[in-house]
Design a protein that fits this description.
Low-confidence stretches of chain A: none
Order of helices and strands of chain A: HHEHEEHEEEHEEHEHHHHHH
Structural class of chain B: alpha/beta
Shape of chain B: globular
Low-confidence stretches of chain B: none
CATH architecture of chain B: 3-Layer(aba) Sandwich
Order of helices and strands of chain B: EHHEHHHEHEHEE
CATH superfamily of chain B: P-loop containing nucleotide triphosphate hydrolases
Oligomer: heterodimer
Distance between the termini of chain B: 26 Å
Largest sheet of chain B: 6 strands, mixed
Radius of gyration of chain B: 17 Å
Mean pLDDT of chain B: 86
Distance between the termini of chain A: 27 Å
Number of helices of chain B: 7
Number of domains of chain A: 2
Strand content of chain A: 15-25%
Radius of gyration of chain A: 33 Å
Structural class of chain A: alpha+beta
Largest interface: A-B, 26 and 31 residues
Strand order of the largest sheet of chain B: 2-3-4-1-5-6
Strand order of the largest sheet of chain A: 2-3-7-4-6-5
Number of helices of chain A: 12
Helix content of chain B: 25-40%
Number of domains of chain B: 1
CATH topology of chain B: Rossmann fold
Chain lengths: 374, 202
């Protein structure tokens, strides 16, 4: 068997050396078809990754509820607490944006002031004993600055902003413990709840629906829920479309590849059928002869695929850039992740094409040896 | 092509002789299992069954009229492949190659590609490949066509050496020189698209 394998290896290699243009034509065909398929899949990959990045920034399980200064407080936090408890929300911070601004030693600008429950554990960790926390990226975290709110002066611990704080308010932002607000009875401009739920998209959907229904029943017209459902749906839609394209790439491009490779193989095999019949005359199984041609096609096919994918991944930022896709999106193109997601479809279509291309050789295997060899 | 043909081929050299198209090569291919009879039965040793792939691997040596050697590899690899399929041990293989090489003047040529050899050298090498696994049945189709007297004589001696009286060796040939060395000559005469075999003992 090893002699047969050695023979096949040498036969393939000598054949390639004898007809480099045929090998080049095959590689070019495979590379063009694979490259086109790869570019399409790269586009989907970039769009999905970009949506995922947005999702990571806002949090896949987080939502922000913004309410106006509702006169009479039709909608208090008790019903929200019920909804959150049923949703199993492990994180919940409530802020009130006040009609107050603060001055700091950081510069000549006004800092919006938010109040927060003094029992909020996150606030306690950030404040480390101070009555206020200045959330900003303008200075390093964990330093202490002097702030003035109206006539009152107090210390505030600085903290750098994380992704969800960026969604709550501007930079800088002053959080003051509710019991340390200098002028009691100050009206709020806006009430903000930051929540994270434990479940997935379904729970998010039902939670948002419950909040909106209760708000409507309570006559709360100013309530806005910011949630990642739109992005989740966008990702699902992109992935569904990607699956359709993967199917057509495998069927269409794989079929085209099979036709082209099959036509070339049929022409070649017309010359090589004598050698195939000679091998069979020694008792070599016809399937082994077909296998040799499939291995040759698969070697060329997968080499073409690797070359095409490498080139396509390199050129994708340029192509996508020319189509108006921002550089921040194409920066998400990670070759390893791309292969993990799209590799099976690409490898599948190339190898399906290679397998189909040996059908003529397989059919020739049924010819009687005595009719081929004279 | 053959109607009511019933023939046994004994050990020794049997030459099939007759005009082109009378079915000499077809008969060899039927014996080898390269063609299937539409009706009737061909049986071969050692099993006494119709020729199978295993028979072709281990017990059959066949020399075609043309394209006898695999073109992309050396003579050595041609022989090695046939021997490997027939499960010939490495030692036996080396011994037989050396023996046939010196006998047929191919010693210096084993690493050459077939395309670099003359027709006579290719035919001799193809003969060695046909016998390297010491088959039970040897079929040679026009083995000396296109060969000069010297090459023809070398091959004739090789047939005689190999076949002796222990192996059936069927040769389809017009060559009178081969017929002179045969144990048996069968005349194949074309008649109404049927072939009649006349036995003519020598």
């Amino acid at each position: 068997m090893s002699a047969l394998l050695r023979y096949f290896a040498k036969d393939i290699w000598v054949g390639w050396r004898a007809s480099p243009f045929v090998v080049g034509a095959k590689l070019m065909t495979i590379a063009l078809l694979t490259g086109a398929g790869t570019v399409i899949l790269v586009c989907f990959h970039v769009f999905v990754e970009e949506a995922r990045l947005r999702l990571e920034q806002i949090g896949a399980r987080s939502m922000i509820i913004r309410r106006g200064p509702s006169p009479g407080h039709h909608l208090d936090n008790l019903w929200l607490e019920d909804v959150m408890n049923s949703a199993g929300a492990p994180v919940w911070h409530h802020f009130d944006r006040l009609i107050l601004v603060a001055d700091t030693e950081l510069g000549d600008f006004s800092v919006p002031v938010f109040s927060i429950d003094p029992e909020d554990r996150w606030f306690q960790e950030c404040a480390t004993g101070a009555p206020a926390v200045l959330l900003t990226n303008r200075v390093p975290g964990a330093s202490v600055v002097d702030v003035r709110v109206g006539a009152a002066r107090m210390n505030a611990t600085t903290r750098n902003r994380n992704s969800w704080v960026e969604r709550v308010g501007p930079d800088p932002l002053l959080l003051i413990s509710r019991d340390r607000i200098p002028r009691q009875g100050t009206y709020e401009l806006e009430r903000i709840d930051y929540l994270e739920i434990a479940g997935g998209k379904g729970q998010m959907l039902s939670t948002v629906s419950a909040i909106e229904t209760l708000a409507r029943e309570a006559g709360e017209r100013s309530l806005v829920v910011q949630h990642p459902l739109a992005i989740l749906e966008e990702i699902e839609r992109l992935q569904a479309t990607q699956r359709v394209w993967e199917y057509w790439i495998v069927m269409g491009f794989g079929g085209a590849l099979a036709l082209v490779m099959g036509a070339i193989s049929a022409l070649e095999y017309r010359e090589q059928r004598y050698v195939g019949a000679l091998l069979r005359s020694f008792g070599v199984h016809p399937a082994v002869v077909v296998l040799r041609h499939w291995v040759e096609a698969a070697l060329l096919g997968n080499a073409g695929l690797l070359a095409a994918a490498w080139i396509a991944l390199g050129l994708a930022p340029l192509i996508l850039g020319s189509l108006g896709v921002p550089a921040s999106a194409t920066a998400q193109l990670d070759a390893a992740r791309f292969w993990a997601t799209n590799g099976p479809a690409l490898v599948g279509f190339v190898n399906t094409g290679c397998l189909l291309s040996v059908i003529p050789v397989g059919l020739a295997g049924f010819e009687e040896i005595g009719r081929v060899l004279q | 092509m053959f109607v009511n043909l019933n023939c046994d081929f004994e050990a020794g050299i049997t030459v099939l002789r007759g005009p082109s198209g009378c079915g000499k090569s077809t008969l060899l291919r039927l014996v080898a299992g390269y063609l299937r009879p539409q009706t009737g039965l061909v049986t071969v040793p050692p099993s006494g069954c119709p020729p199978t792939r295993a028979f072709q691997q281990r017990h059959l040596g066949f020399l075609f009229q043309s394209l006898n050697l695999l073109p992309n590899v050396s003579l050595w690899q041609n022989l090695e492949l046939a021997a490997s399929l027939a499960k010939v041990s490495r030692d036996d293989f080396a011994q037989r190659v050396a023996s046939w090489g010196s006998r047929l003047g191919l010693d210096e040529l084993w690493q050459e590609a077939p395309a670099r050899l003359s027709v006579g050298q290719q035919q001799r090498a193809a003969f060695v490949r046909a016998v390297i696994h010491e088959p039970l049945v040897l079929c040679l189709d026009e083995p000396t066509s296109g060969l000069d007297d010297e090459n023809c004589e070398k091959l004739r001696q090789a047939f005689l050496t190999f076949a002796g009286a222990s192996h059936p060796c069927l040769i389809a040939s017009h060559d009178e020189r081969l017929a002179a060395s045969a144990n048996r000559v069968i005349e194949c005469r074309e008649w109404s698209r049927q072939t009649v075999l006349d036995n003519q003992a020598h």
